[in-house]
Amino acid sequence: MTSALKGRRVALAVSGSIAAYKAVLVARLLVTAGAQVQTLFTRSASQFVGAQTFAGVTGRPVLSEMFAPGAAGEPHVDIARESELMLIVPATADLLARLAGGRADDLVAATALCSTCPVVAAPAMHPAMWAHPATQRNLRTLTGDARVHLVGPVDGEVASGERGLGRMAEPDAIVAAALAALAPRDLVGRHLVVTAGPTIEDIDPVRFLSNRSSGKMGFAIAARARARGADVTLIAGPTPLPTPAGVTRIDVRSALDMQAAVGRALGAALDAADALVMAAAVGDYRPTSTHDQKLKRTADALELGLTPNPDILAAVGAARRGVRPVLVGFAVEAAGDAQVLAYARAKLDSKRVDVVVANHAADAFGKDDNRVTLVTRDGAQALAPGPKSELADPILDFVAKKLEEPG
Fold first, then answer.
1. Where are the beta strands (DSSP E) in 324-378?
2. How far is it, in rounded angstroms, from Cα 294 to Cα 332?
3. Per residue in 196-221, pLDDT tens?
4. 190, 230 Cβ separation under 8 angstroms
5. Which of 58, 235, 353, 363 is the most buried (most CB within 10 A)?
6. Is 375 helix (H, G, I), strand (E, B) or coil?
7. Residue 235: exposed, middle, or buried by beta-carbon count in 10 A (0-12, 13-18, 19+)?
8. How far is 155 from 163, CA to CA, in rounded Å?
């Protein structure tokens, strides 16, 4: 989870659906990320999940009445004014209909009607209800007004045991949508090319050379760039990671494949993208010869000839004229901190890039967390260790600031 949610005030509205139990998991994820969560119930929500559960998770009592005895002020107005985001999890067909009609007949609907902050709804209903023309009409009204953003539904099994489009999105996808709604929109209109993962160099049909990169850092950067409004092209080496929402993904295998894909994404004149974030761990060498048949084991030693792969980032840096696209490189080393920083500074000059993200192989490969230092010509900025999704934003902060400079 990312610190982008730390201290953010979120109103979590829960409606009456069997999917309401997943809202507890959403609340837990939000609180774990540092958000301040105020839970609101529709009248029927308590028939599916207990208010005390949410109170225990969030540390705040659940509110369900607009005019509770002894309560001062107008809760729906106060909550709407104080919240930076309203999440509706789950959003039933009935609640969506009431929101589309501008109803204010309970605390949740009235709060949504008062809200000027982003409202994100996670629909959950039987597929027949989702497909009904009335529901689709209500959705067009809500999304057309740009007041409600939807996450899901997804295709899957619903409460009745039937399958179809109507199952609520999973909690992590809902929280990702919350992050996107709260992200700064400082990359709107920009095109970022991000590379991620390893490359694979085939020796024969069953053997290859590769490395331990998981692609998680590059995928995190792509997801956060998209959340901040960028058009993102993600060029990924072999990895099972799911494509971030809204991101255009191009799958490649070898270093030569990645070089070709980067060239197409940037354009011949390097003017088709505003920035290149080269987070992929591109193999330095490939076999001189690739065999069509499996090499057979013998008693003799095997000598494998290797040919250097092209340095994709260095080639772009050498071809760049001026300051566009912004170039972000990565330096992964197994040495001590001083050696890693020295290598990053050398890479900064030799590849003619704007910033190098320096990190240790032991901290980075295959892990969800990382420890990195941003090395520029002005110095080095060590970032606090944390999840890769959290570290993506400072890297993008640098890119966004660089893009504001005269071109």
1. 326-333, 355-360, 369-370, 372-376
2. 32
3. 999 999 998 988 888 888 889 999 99
4. yes
5. 235
6. strand
7. buried
8. 7
Asked, as a colleague might, if the bond just before 205 is cis with ω within 30 of 0, I would say: no
| Non-local CB neighbours of 307 within 8 Å, separated by 6+ positions | 285, 286, 287, 288
Residue spans of alpha helices (H) in 35-92? 51-58, 75-82
- Positions of the chain with pLDDT lower than 50, given as ranges: 1
Q: For residue 314, with 0-12 CB atoms within 10 Å meaning exposed, 13-18 middle and 19 or more buried, which class applies?
A: middle
Reference 26, options 13, 41, 16, 17; nearest CA is 13
Tokens of 34: 């540092």
β-pairing verdict for 9-14 and 36-41: parallel
Is the domain spanning 3-182 CATH 3.40.50.1950? The answer is: yes
Nearest to 162 by CA among 126, 124, 123, 136: 126
Sign of the Cα torsion 40, 44, 50, 52 reads: positive
Q: Are β-strands 275-278 and 207-209 bridged in parallel, bridged antiparallel, or unpaired?
A: unpaired
Say if CB 391 and CB 372 are below 8 A apart: yes
Question: Residue 76 has which token pair?
Answer: 């729906």
Query: For the chain, what percentages of helix, strand and coil (3-state, to nearest 5) are there?
Result: 35, 25, 40
Report the alpha-carbon angle 281-331-377, nearest 5. Answer: 140
User: Which residues are catalytic, by number?
Assistant: 211
Its CATH class, for the domain covering 191-404, is alpha beta
- The domain locations on the chain are 3-182, 191-404
Output the six-digit token pair for 277: 């974030």
Q: How far is it, in rounded angstroms, from Cα 116 to Cα 152?
A: 22
Write out pLDDT tens, residues 83-139: 989 999 999 999 999 999 898 889 999 999 998 888 999 999 999 999 999 999 999
Nearest to 183 by CA among 406, 336, 397, 403: 397
Separation of alpha carbons 77 and 67, rounded Å? 12
Distances (CA, A) of 322 to 203, 330, 385, 405: 40, 21, 33, 12
- How many other CB atoms are found less than 10 A from the CB of residue 105? 12
Q: Do domains 3-182 and 191-404 have the same CATH topology?
A: yes
Taken as a whole, the chain contains a residue count of 407
Cα distances (Å, whole numbers) of residue 192 to 152, 163, 186, 230, 269: 26, 37, 13, 7, 16
